[in-house]
Amino acid sequence: MVSEIIRNLAKDLRVEFRSRFAINISLAFAVIATLALSLATGGIPFPPRVQSVLLWLIIFFSAMNGLSHIFVREDDRGTSLFLLVSTTSDAIYLSKLIYNLIFMSVLLAVITPLFVFFLQVNILGIPPFIISVLTGGLSITAVTTILAAMVAKSGGKGPLFTIISFPLLLPVLWLSIFSTAATLESTGPHGYGTQLFLLAFSGFITALSFLLFRFVWLDE
After folding, report:
1. CA distance 103 to 67
2. Which pTM was predicted?
3. Distance (Å, rounded) from C-alpha 112 to C-alpha 214?
């Protein structure tokens, strides 16, 4: 299984590196949205809670442009059948999950500093802030990977994926906004209860998706 995961992941990364379609669209949306907000405010910073809400909205909609692409691309290129007969469903899910984690990590590494700089975000707790962003991004990836497979198998595209994902991700977004806002509002000691919950939630969703992916992918 490990060799299958590495082979499939290397193929996905190579294809994305050649086209750079998904990552370019996601980063372009994030940059435009951030610059538009900065210009609209005229240099006046938002309150911390509003900054947290705007940050996670930009992360969410930027990620939606690319997280479903990993499965939709297989159907668009006609390679899903070959993938079905050459790779086990478990290896397919894990390789796609790892790819989405890499994709989300790149987005977070670009969006977060950009947002902090242009929106004049004053981070009072840097380590909790980083952990909040990482655990929120991990939870979004864990939920959307299995949803992307379901949407691709149903013949849907990006808009359907976003519509389905948003209500399911509302609790994750709410907790991420809450934990991120706490790091912008207080200089006191920060608890990690919310971040630990998001981490446990990601593990639960990943385990459940791993068990159910075969039925989604094989249409059983």
Report:
1. 8
2. 0.88
3. 35
Is the distance from CB of 127 to CB of 135 less than 8 angstroms? no
Q: Are 154 and 92 in contact (CB under 8 A)?
A: no
Name every residue whose Cβ is closer than 8 Å to that of residue 26 and which is 6 or more positions away in sequence: 62, 63, 65, 66, 103, 107
Contacts of 69 (CB under 8 A, 6+ apart): 21, 22, 158
Mean pLDDT of 100-104: 92
Cα–Cα distances in Å, from 31 out to 28, 106, 128, 161? 5, 14, 24, 22
Q: Rounded CA gap, 69 and 212, in Å?
A: 20
Task: State both tokens at 187.
Answer: 């200089």
State the greatest distance between any 2 C-alpha atoms of the chain, in Å, as a whole number.
Answer: 56
Q: What is the mean pLDDT of residues 59-75?
A: 80
- Tokens 């948003």 found at: 166
Give residue limits of the domains in the chain: 2-217
Q: Which residues contact 89 (CB under 8 A, 6 or more apart)?
A: 213, 214, 217, 218
